[in-house]
Amino acid sequence: MSWLGGHGDASSRRSGTLTVLDVGSSKVCCMVAKLKPCDDGKLLRGRSHRIQVIGIGHQKSQGVKSGVVVDLDRAEHAIRLAVDAAERMAGLTVDSLIVNMTAGRLKSEAFSATINLGGHEADETDIKRVLGAGAKQALKVEREVIHSLPVGFSLDAERGVRDPRGMVGDALGVDMHVLTGDAAPMRNLELSINRSHLSVERMVATPYASGLAALVDDELEMGAACIDMGGGTTTISVFSEGKFVHGDAIAIGGNHVTLDMAKGLSTSLDAAERLKVMHGSALPGSADDRDLVSIQPIGDDGDVPLQIPRSVMTRIVRARIDETLELLRDRLNKSGYGNAVGKRVVLTGGASQLAGLPEAARRILGRNVRIGRPLGVAGLPEAAKGPAFSAAVGLLIYPQMASFESHPAKGISGLRMTGTGGKLHRMSQWLRDSF
């Protein structure tokens, strides 16, 4: 089923409110935004609406480890607090959300499908048919389709058709990118949200959301990779010719650097986190052996903290960061999209703020690297403009980009949500009609 209808003219694009929830390993963030149709000619990257954030709430994450819900009660509590704060600020009640999905061994696959047109014009139903045929191939036991996206259409032998509606041919073909994830982590994430009396409108893969928020037009068109380094996971997405063509995730993030430091310097996790933020760097400096950092040893109530050279700390940080980046480099090369990315890599996510990380990434990935912050959204408080909020902002952008996305009627993706006919049903109806 197609989640959103055609674009239509400006008059059919109504304003509305959209709520998104980013459940991460280090924070849970909820944003409520008003979407207003753009009236000016120049749209930002195919976006049809302007986004104004009217409510935001974020909480320290609980019960989530490496992007997976491991404790339903604690996760539910954190989600409830974040959503309550956003609701209070926006002055409205929320009952359904767009949520991102990081865990569940995300896997990208490419499929092709062709249907017979018999010489008539291609219309919406033909597109649905060919997308459905492509998505069917990806359905496997215990896996759920999170996204099935057309990368390009072909008519007869002509490839590279962006929108085949109204065109004539005998055979309509599509090349698709289908992203799947394990069903169980998706179910548990949904469960922890349902227990807060909220329903999931749509699940979006974190790498897709982060890329939508952090990449600029030219990067999307020419091809670029977006690496989102979170607390418990790092995701990578590749965009080419404006399309999301590959996604992947690894269960290593900023928390692992903190853990390594706590172990290596035998100090508490809180102290290690503070040291990492204040003094941590992935880049050795010339004065590191002379610069001393004071550390409170674990379980020691003595007043005298230990003094260690900063270089000891840098070595611990650098070992983990290098390992993570090498893993990402190998994943990128294996994906077959290394060439599409060219020299363009954007780092985002909370853990991308570590000092010296862009330099380390340039060295290991052998590409140009910049830090990406969420773009094109008004009303974000200063504290939420940093790279840590890219995934949440990307979820606000997502509905406008999803015009061709098809969803098999199985499982979560098929909007098998409770409360049909209620406000949730109207919300999805609004989304379908508006974009």
UniProtKB/TrEMBL annotation:
Topology relative to the lipid bilayer, per the entry, is:
Peripheral membrane protein
Q: Look up the domain of life of the source.
A: Bacteria
Chief localization = membrane
The SHS2 domain, residue ranges = 18-214
Q: Which Pfam families match?
A: FtsA, SHS2_FTSA
Q: Where does this one sit in the cell?
A: Cell membrane
Q: Which UniProt keywords apply?
A: Cell cycle, Cell division, Cell membrane, Membrane
What SUPFAM superfamilies has UniProt attached to this entry? Actin-like ATPase domain
Q: Which GO terms describe its biological process?
A: FtsZ-dependent cytokinesis
Report whether Cell membrane shows up as a keyword of the record.
yes
Cellular component terms, GO, for this chain's entry? cell division site; cytoplasmic side of plasma membrane
Which protein family is it in? Belongs to the FtsA/MreB family.
Q: How does it assemble?
A: Self-interacts. Interacts with FtsZ.
- Role according to the record: Cell division protein that is involved in the assembly of the Z ring. May serve as a membrane anchor for the Z ring.
Checking NCBIfam families in the record gives: ftsA (TIGR01174)
Q: Supply the name of the protein.
A: Cell division protein FtsA
* Organism, as annotated: Rhizobium loti (Mesorhizobium loti)
Taxonomic classification, please? Bacteria, Pseudomonadati, Pseudomonadota, Alphaproteobacteria, Hyphomicrobiales
